[in-house]
Specification:
Elements lengths: L1 H27 L1 H8 L4 H26 L8 H16 L9 H12 L3 H33 L4 H22 L12 H29 L1 H28 L6 H15 L10 H12 L4 H41 L1
Helix pairs in contact: 2-12, 3-4, 3-6, 3-9, 3-12, 4-5, 4-12, 5-6, 6-7, 6-8, 6-9, 6-10, 7-10, 9-10, 9-12, 10-11, 11-12
Length: 333
């Protein structure tokens, strides 16, 4: 019952995001928006979707490279499909790029035969390799934007919040230990403390495994480079969308708009950063000299390629895994 309630809440939040975006389109002018976005033909839409899928494939490669030394059973294709399923959960969950990790760990366990402990360590390591380059790129982007554009205050707040959150999470995961407590607690407090300590111990061991991976200089250099390449493709897709819609936008403005939009979209308000992404990108593009309808068209079309189409594809992959699980359950009865 609780799971159904959570699923309903996620769907409602997703619908809320759709309604808000639809309202923005209506306010700007449906006819004008459709006329602008019709500049991208079906062949180009397919090409841009394939580029997005290629980016997701590179992202899944980080998991694959971390797993292949631990499990000979894992394949690149299975890791990609599991990453897609995780992308679906991440897209319908308000989270800081963390919503799909539990799904990935669960499915990876079935495919790799590794323990939850080992897979949690891999998940932590993958997020380190993925988010550290993003933080560095975001810092450079914000510093550059400070002298070029008038960014919304929420961008600076989002970066500060993400940086503080990452630091606090690092302290939680990688702290070495605690002082031993003396005295007795109430039985209820004791049970809570026992469960908390068990969870902390689990995360501590997983973090130790992740730390060993990150300390490997050769492996770290490869995975950080791969993550930088993944993030470098993000503004390329936005630039292509703007170009195909007929707009000549400075690459610097595109880069700033892209990374500030992704930065603000990590604020866990609506699933997949809906509204916050589109709003931030449009505001930055307007600050860079574009008209509001043109900027909104670029932001919304970018999201069609990077969010909505992958959402539908990842939903199909997730349904496949659900059906596979049901078939296994039936056959085991």
């Amino acid at each position: 019952m609780a799971r159904r309630g959570e699923a309903a809440r996620r769907i409602l939040l997703l619908l809320l995001g759709v309604i808000v975006i639809a309202g923005i389109i209506v306010a700007i002018g449906v006819g004008e928006m459709v006329a602008i976005m019709s500049g991208i033909t079906l062949p180009w839409l397919i090409a841009l979707t394939l580029l997005q899928l290629g980016t997701l494939s590179l992202t899944s490669t980080i998991w694959y490279l971390l797993l292949r030394e631990k499990s000979a059973a894992i394949t690149r294709s299975s890791v990609f499909l599991i990453t897609m399923a995780g992308t679906f959960i991440e897209s319908i969950t308000p989270s800081v790029k963390l919503g799909g990790e539990a799904m990935k760990i669960y499915l990876m366990k079935k495919k790799s035969a590794l323990s939850y402990q080992e897979l949690t360590g891999v998940a932590i390591a993958s997020k380190i390799f993925y988010l550290v380059p993003f933080l560095l790129i975001s810092l450079i982007t914000i510093v550059a934007a400070f002298f070029i554009l008038d960014l919304p205050a929420v961008v600076y707040s989002a970066f500060a919040g993400l940086l503080i959150g990452c630091c606090l999470l690092s302290l939680l995961l990688f702290r070495t230990g605690e002082k031993e407590r003396t005295g007795k607690d109430h039985p209820i407090i004791q049970r809570i403390r026992t469960r908390t300590e068990a969870a902390r111990s689990f995360l501590s061991r997983s973090s130790g495994m992740a730390a060993e991976i990150v300390r490997d200089p050769k492996k770290s250099a490869t995975l950080y480079l791969l993550a930088f390449i993944v993030w470098a493709f993000y503004p390329v897709k936005v630039y292509l969308v703007a170009y195909l819609l007929g707009f000549q936008v400075s690459p610097i403005v595109i880069i700033i708009a892209t990374f500030t939009a992704y930065l603000v979209s990590m604020i866990p308000l609506l699933p997949g950063g809906l509204v916050t992404f589109e709003g931030t990108m449009a505001l930055v593009l307007v600050s860079g000299g574009m008209a509001l309808p043109d900027a909104a068209a670029v932001a919304i079309m970018t999201r069609c390629i990077t969010f909505w189409i992958p959402l539908l594809l990842s939903a199909a992959v997730t349904l496949f895994f659900i059906q596979e699980r049901r078939s296994e359950t039936v056959s085991s009865i």
